Amino acid sequence: MSSSSSLGTGSRWLGFRTPSLRFLHGWAIADLAANILLVVTGGAVRVTGSGLGCPTWPQCGDGKYTPPMSYHGVIEFGNRMLTWLLVAIAVATWIAAMRYRPVDRISRRLATWVALGIPLQAVIGGITVLTKLNPWVVAFHFLLTMVIISLATWLVYRTRSGGTADPAPIPRDSVITRLSIVLALTVYVITWITIYLGTVVTGSGPHSGDENSHRNGLQPTQATQLHVDAVWSLVGLSFAILLLAVIARLAMRRATYWFGGLLVLQGVVGYVQYASGLPILLVLIHMLVSALLMVGATLLVLHAYRAPKTADLHDGDPEPAVPAAS
């Protein structure tokens, strides 16, 4: 693929100039960033006790679509309005993916899945209100956002410069290659388990989203212990894949550094917030890093499937461009 065709230069679609790959990549990044922002604002709704600031859905109470003039009502209504920003960005990303030439079916599918996930997420959010913040429904609401973030991460990876060229997959006959793939997939799965158990801890703790909403009935200390066990399993697996990437000189080693650093940060924040009684700011940081960990775990899998070995490179040489995941 020539550079001019990869950027969509000079070509037209339905009378409009087709977007460049850089343009599509920019919208993909905006799509990912907006969904990560939703995690933080959703967390703010919960930790401020504003989950029922709008006690009905899709209205905001008393048959109105405007918020009651109260602290909790404005916070909850503001989070709902963020959905419209997400819809606008997701639609713009989808249009860019559909107009991009040459046709990239994977980018189209990813943009479509992310765009469809936004209204589905809004409906699940409405169900959380109608069930008076049932902790299991709230957990599902959060986990669906993580699914969207993982898909949006893939789209960002896919649309980076040179990412849609679809080179041949790397050979699977190497022990190092197979081991890196298995470790990356295992890290991804354990990351999901860890995040899920984090929602169980939240469902048993004090930040219910509203002072009158019920909890899941589990003991916070027991739920926290399960979550901590999963975290330490993830730490061990992350160290293993980092060690493999460094020893085997894999191009994915930079991704393992970032994931390891995020995991350390998350562990420190988690222990400090637990010891200090779950202050609001630390809870929000913990949720933000959870979203970033999902980004990192997704990138590890994408790199493991496509990142070439770089054992033949000398120290200090630039790493080769990493081809896209298919």
Question: Could you list some keywords that capture this structure?
Answer:
mainly alpha, disordered C terminus, two-stranded antiparallel ribbon, 2 domains, 326 residues
Helix-residue proportion: 55-70%
Distance between the first and last residues' Cα: 16 Å
Q: Structural class of the secondary elements?
A: mainly alpha
Taking the sheet with the most strands, its summary is: 2 strands, antiparallel
**Whole-number mean pLDDT:** 80
Number of strands: 2
Main location: membrane
InterPro entries: COX15/CtaA_fam, COX15/CtaA_HemeA_synthase
GO molecular function: metal ion binding; oxidoreductase activity
Membrane topology: Multi-pass membrane protein
Structure in words:
- By secondary structure, the protein is mostly helical.
- The protein has two domains: 1-166; 169-326.
- The protein contains nine helices and two strands, in the order αββαααααααα.
- A hairpin with a 2-residue loop joins strand 1 and strand 2.
- The radius of gyration is 21 Å and the shape is flat.
List the helices and strands and how they pair.
Layout: H1 3-6, E1 12-13, E2 16-17, H2 21-47, H3 71-99, H4 105-130, H5 135-158, H6 175-204, H7 220-247, H8 253-275, H9 280-306
Antiparallel strand pairs: 1-2
Brief rundown of the structure:
The protein folds into 2 domains: 1-166; 169-326. It is 67% helix and 1% strand.
